[in-house]
Amino acid sequence: MPLCGFNEQMLNGLELFHEGLASNKIIDRFNNNKLEELERD
Amino acid sequence: MPFCGFDKNMLEGIRLFHKGLIEHGIIEHSRKKNQMVDETINKEIKDMERFQKELSAIEDLEIRELIRTLTEYACAFYKLLQREGIKDYEKLIEKINNLYFEMDDKFYSELEGKPDDMKQLAIYMNELSKS
User: Fold this and answer.
1) Which residues in chain B have their CB less than 8 angstroms from residue A13's CB?
2) Any idea of the CA torsion for A26, B71, B96, A19, to the nearest 10 degrees?
3) What sections of chain B are H helices per DSSP?
4) pTM of the prediction?
5) Which of B15, B18, B74 sits opposite A1 (nearest CB)?
6) Are A7 and B22 in contact (CB under 8 A)?
């Protein structure tokens, strides 16, 4: 938070969370769609 | 989140964030300022509410939205901490992680694609938070 004072642990936590949001659903979904496209071809 | 699918990294990230909010944001600050935990929590909540009133000055809409929701999240977390008490905060952190995990699991393993899936999930959250 701006005002409670971020420490390194909190920033690491947010980094893991953001990475998970992007890779877990967005990139995985993109890769799955690509695989399906390749299988159809 | 209900529908993004929590993985282990994300749950660990949330755990670290919650831990920091309590240990750094509240316990350390209370010690440094020599004040009661409740006073520190109230001060943090008030500061974040004051900050939220100024957020329209942030020009980037997406960044503004991230900051707004993150401060709202922290405020909600601190209010829950006030209600539950700081004594067993490790248990509280574990409880919230379990809540998120169960919410996600319920959706993906049982409800996804069913009519009223979101409504059922919201109702299920009541059962979870009572247990």
Assistant:
1) 12-20
2) 30
3) 8-22, 29-33, 37-52, 61-84, 89-106, 117-130
4) 0.85
5) B74
6) no
Interface touch A17/B13, C-beta < 8 Å? yes
What are the residue ranges spanned by the domains of chain B?
8-130
Per-residue pLDDT reduced to its tens digit, B28-78: 999 999 999 999 999 999 999 999 999 999 999 999 999 999 999 999 999
Q: Rounded to an integer, what distance in angstroms lies between the CA atom of residue A31 and that of residue A33? A: 5
Q: Please state, in angstroms and rounded to a whole number, the distance separating the CA atoms of residues B24 and B40.
A: 11
Regarding an ipTM greater than 0.90, the answer is: no
Q: Does A13 touch chain B (CB under 8 A)?
A: yes
Contacts of B24 in chain A (CB under 8 A): 4-7, 9-10
- Give Cβ neighbours of residue A13 (< 8 Å, ≥ 6 apart): B12, B13, B14, B15, B16, B17, B18, B19, B20
